[in-house]
Amino acid sequence: MQMMICSFCFKCILRAVIICCIVNVGNSMILTEVMTESDVAAAHQFFLNSISKQSSIESLAWVANGLKTMNKKIPDDKAKLICESAKEAVKNTSEIQPIYWAAFAVHALENCQLPSFPSNYFDKYLFDKSNAKTVAYAVSSIGYLKVKYDMEKMRSVVSALVKRSTSPNDRSVLLNTAPFLSGDLKFLTDCANDLVSQVDESDERYLRFDGGIGTTASIVHAIYQLSVKTGNPVALKKEQILKFANYLISRRRVYHPRVTSLIFSVLHDMTNDKVANLPKNSVPLAILLEHNGSLDQVKSSIQFMVTDIFGHIVPTDRVIADKIVHISSKEVVMNSKPFSRMSAKGNAVYELKFVDEKRKAGFYECFVSVGATNSKYMPIVQEGIVIKVSREIYISGLNLAIHESERFPLDDKAESMKINGKKLMQLSADDHQKLAVIFVIKDKLTKESILVDQAYLQFEEQNTKTIITVPVANDNANVYKADIDFKQMAKDYEFTSGMYEISLIVGDDVIMNSVIVKLALLNLQLPAVVEHAGKSVLESTDYKMKPEIVHSFRPPEKRPPKFISDIFSVAAVIPFFLLLCIWFYLGANIWGIPFSPVVIVFHAGLGGIFWLYYQFWVHLNMFETLKYLGILGTITFLSGISVLRKRADRINSLNESCFAKVNGEVVSSIQRGICALIGLSRDDDANDIEYIVRKLLNLRIFTGDAEKRWDKSVNDLQLEILCVSQVSAFTLNALLKGNKLDFHLSMNPSEAAQFYCTFVDKLRQNYREDLVKGFLLFVDVMSSKSSSGEEFMVICYPGIVKNVDKALESLGGMKEIEKHKAGSLELNFHRKSNVFSRPALSRHREGAFLIIRARRLIQASPSSSEQATYSVQLEVVGTLSSIHDFNSSLFDFQYLPMRKNEDGQYSEIYSALVPSTKEQAERWFTAPIPDPGLFLIPFSFTRLCTVSETILSREVTSYDLETPGRTAESVRIGDCKNLKCFCLYTSAARKNRRTYTRMAAATDEFPAEPSPLAMKQVKRNTFDPAVHEALEKAFSERPMWLKYSLIVKLKLDERDVRRLLPKFAFHIISGPWGRNWCRYKYDPREDTNSWKFQTMHFPFFRFGGESALSDAFVKWHLKVSSVGIRSSKEWDKLLTTEPAFEYTEGCLPPLRSMWYQMCDIHLPAVKELLSHRLRENQTESHPTDGWLKSGTLDEIRELIKLDFKKTIDTLNAQASQSKADESD
């Protein structure tokens, strides 16, 4: 095994140099590197070499400005070349980029001018829909060319783009327009502060922006230029300036015209107080150590210079070493020592004597404080620099011996053996013996023993030059010992018998003289068993002559018959003809091949190769064929590359565009951008629209300017968006159920169309309207449009329509119909003239409907005696997925009631039936209505907008708590006595439906845990954890709740509450606690305090009394809801203030009919009544009255009724007083 020792001494020296150059930069406030004169010279030479005729105008512009920033004169021939290139760039161009780069380049030259441009020339670039670079280039060009332009327009366009742009690249180019703008530039200052807040930190030393060195330098330069323009301090902190400077200087050798120019511009801004409004203590300093911080007896002083970014000496008033600490032992060896100033080669060098005879070798950290005379520089306060102190060493007490004992035979106090490098000591050993070595390493100056990192014994075999190294360890007394067992070493290191040269190698980071000493020659004899079994190459090589190789050639085989050869030829040709057949079958567009010269050459080359194959088969030999094939193949290869390149360019151009076709016709198209296929679910809402719009605009999937993938979004590049929606959403929103698709989660087609339109409108509001293309793709069989584009809507109007305009007016007009076409339409003939009238609502029925136009064609007979023939022609005009039906609605005299008089004429009785004034309404309480045989309900007594299909039935005494569905049988209501009316029946039994709620009647056993179906429902649906926690907390505080009380109290959505309630509580459907949701394992029938949760129903709409026709009652009656509360947001629209689920004295309720718990009625009279109406000494609750005495609920209703009337009267009095005050 070859184990070669590398030149570790040089590694030690290199490592020491690197460590000594380290500055403690964890929280350092000094520069880690500076821009030296050699760096400036290299950049200067790079700029000069970059000026050539082949360079672009952009590169020349950056080079010219970079040389100007460096204060370097551009040679006349180079300047003339840049000027001519700039003038050539602006000729016959319609783009702003060449004009900008030309103006930017000429700005850095002295004697060069571009042609003048009129002010209106830049109008086509300065508008709100332009991208950031176009606007920035236009504004900068106007500034460089000194064109008079409307400053207010430029500022407004830049301001709008700054607010709209999100990428650092766009914002940086907009920030660089600050020198050419005037007025209020607060929007640019805000943009700079926002960009600084997004900066990334690297290695605790650097700050950079997303986009790399170019973007970082551009933004920092723009911040300094903005400070010059506004006169405000630079929007950067001291630490940020320092870390930006460290990052820029670390990239100083990235030679690129733009990057190098920007780096010098930023560093120039940071140091030159004439360029930027520099705040106090904002220019960073650097400490440059002499000798790389390595000290010894000769170089015994710490020496350094204090410089700025460009390595220029900075005058200082004090330089102090606050303390110097030995790094390994943490010992403070010096405190508060000032540095003395000395001059060396014209530079101010600071020196501190540090190394003396007592100074131990090792690494030290010196904490330095420096104060600059100029207040613009950052003071250096206790910055740590690492110093290395090196020493010379020598070997003492070196001895070695061969022994067989178990004890170590050598002593470190014995004198060192004498070593003669020319004639080494001869030693012999076998596998039963050991080699003992002992030595001490001492400091040559202090004579003290020290420890080193590396101490080895090297064994070099004299014949094979195999080298084996063995480490030597030290003990607690700094003595190095090694006791080498040759038998064990032979196993570990593959020792073999032979003559070995033994050497001692010592090295360390702080040692000036590394030691390599040859000690002795060792003749090592090992047994054959231990020796390495391998032989040398010479020994294992056999040089005897080998037998001669006689080649035998196989005799030619018998050729097959001609029949077999023909079959083989046909089989070889079949794939070619099969390929042609497949082309024709698949419809290969052979005629679509472009007939350019390159394509003709390519196909001719392919044909020539096939012909060459035939000739090879018939006439040519292999060598002739290869000669001709090389010529044809080269031509075909080169022409084929050109053809493929054109094909790839064509594919790329197709990839940069997207279009949608319907029946072969392109209905919408975009260029580069996103084609979004919109699939809609029935659970989607406005939050999903906000989320998708935000993601579509900000999704970074495009390549940026720096060829960085996944770097830009549609919003960054101002690209187009094509939205394609399938109204049924079937193919875009489906679940795989076995081998079939399941579409039950898709949104209804009629709702999906409206939802999709809302999505497109929202996308256009948040983006540019001209860049968003919307396209509806109807994949349903049903479509509400005809082939001619007409859109249909079917309304089953409850009557014969003779005047279409009046019929539409009764429905609110076309705008209202369009607005509510996906919901319910309102039918009302007198919505404005009568406040007592309420509209009738249509039923939106969904299904599959056809619109058919039927024509009866009459064919006249030739003679009058013959009967005319008829034929019916049917035409499907269109299809519908829904209709609006009014036939099942309850109208409350939506039509004018008529009565037939004795003379046979009809007269209306509307004024007698429908009150329009207070006096007419009062007749209902004083005089009978006409025709007492017929009782018709007046308007204000009707509570529902549509017919209720739910008929009251008998109360079920028991429920199956485990069955997820139940059926309510048809129940006859009864006979109406003394009235001409009909008995009502339920039209059909209620369909079985699945429920996840455990229900219990008042006399049933209450459940103790939720049903498995309820828990499965909760796990299947994803709920907001906040809703879950709110319900859990609510039932821990109160065991029983009404559902709408929970909605209002917790401000939750009704859908979330309905789905989650079965997990926490069961529903009591009858008895004293009916309508309550009760916590599991809680039985109110056993808790005497549960009287607080007994419920009571109060129909407020029945208790208006004499005030029922007053203004206050009518307004309350029309405004409040009779259906129920869907979400907590609806409470904001009601008359009362929170808590709305509680009854409060003097406040109107939010619903016409309310359920209350006893604890939610805050009426002093009711509280006093309840304190006396509790059952005393009762151990069981009553099935109907609970823990209250019989008749208590009736008394509470009377008290609430009195307070409700009192509140109505009070509001009426206030309204009357207000009217009286207004009349006065």
From TrEMBL:
Residues 412-523 form the Ribophorin II third domain. Its EC number is 3.1.1.96. Residues 553-649 form the Ribophorin II C-terminal domain. Residues 287-389 form the Ribophorin II second domain. It is a multi-pass membrane protein. Keywords: Endoplasmic reticulum, Membrane, Signal, Transferase, Transmembrane, Transmembrane helix. Pfam families: Ribophorin_II (PF05817), Ribophorin_II_2nd (PF23861), Ribophorin_II_3rd (PF23860), Ribophorin_II_C (PF25147), Tau95 (PF09734), Tau95_N (PF17682), Tyr_Deacylase (PF02580). The chain crosses the membrane at residues 567-586, 593-614. It is found in: Endoplasmic reticulum membrane. Pathway: Protein modification; protein glycosylation. PANTHER family: DOLICHYL-DIPHOSPHOOLIGOSACCHARIDE--PROTEIN GLYCOSYLTRANSFERASE SUBUNIT 2, RIBOPHORIN II. Subunit of the oligosaccharyl transferase (OST) complex that catalyzes the initial transfer of a defined glycan (Glc(3)Man(9)GlcNAc(2) in eukaryotes) from the lipid carrier dolichol-pyrophosphate to an asparagine residue within an Asn-X-Ser/Thr consensus motif in nascent polypeptide chains, the first step in protein N-glycosylation. N-glycosylation occurs cotranslationally and the complex associates with the Sec61 complex at the channel-forming translocon complex that mediates protein translocation across the endoplasmic reticulum (ER). All subunits are required for a maximal enzyme activity. This is Dolichyl-diphosphooligosaccharide--protein glycosyltransferase subunit 2. It comes from Trichinella pseudospiralis (Parasitic roundworm).
